[in-house]
User: What shape does this take?
Amino acid sequence: MNDTPATQAALPAQAAPAAVPAVNGSGERRDYRPGYEIVAEQILEYIAESRLVAGDRLPTENDLAQTLNTSRAVVREAVKILSALGRVRAHKGRGLFVADDEGMLITSRWGGFFRPVDLDHVLMLFEFRRVQEMAASSLAATRATPSELRTVEVAMQQCRHGFVHGQVDVFNQADDDFHAAVATASHNTFLVNAVRDARRLQRQSSAIGIHQTLGENTEAAVEEHEAIYRAIRDGRPDEAAEATAVHLDRTLEDYRREIQRRLFG
Assistant: This one.
């Protein structure tokens, strides 16, 4: 553990001091990106590139603001996001530290390199999810107990409820519950942990720059969940795996488009 400020390592390229409109090749304006999103990404890059581990000290908010050419207020908002994600922790009177809670331990387990808005990293994460969740749903189709099937069904129904009533939080929680329930029904503890960890990493992409809305894509997710559930319920492992692949491939395309839209216009 390194308890001294990590001020010698190079920080990422400077961030814009605030949200600034960009122009694409055709002269059209892109969407604004809040400055705190950019700074949050750069702090994550700093943690990864400096190979910091849980308990290591980060530069102060003032130092980060000066180095990144932004305001302390923007850095503070970025730190709030990263604290909620379990990536950094602010200790009053002591400074900022790489977090030692479960969120950071999960990230360290996969090499500590994950960057939530890096398209290559998101692609790799979904490749990982595809392998794990196809296996989990296939096994669930042959191993799920009646109680476990009911848990999957309830989560599926809650996803639809959240979509129909425009309740983003309800949908997001039910989405987590659905994938966790399918993994649990596989009766494989390693798959349960792998699915949980991968989804927690994915939520970092949702929290930094990729914001969930309830629309056409969410309706597709609801239908895909139902297809996975029916295949598991009917004891069809190959169909359960294929339905899972369809769901994750479509979700990856949603993330790919949103990342490209926000970063490249």
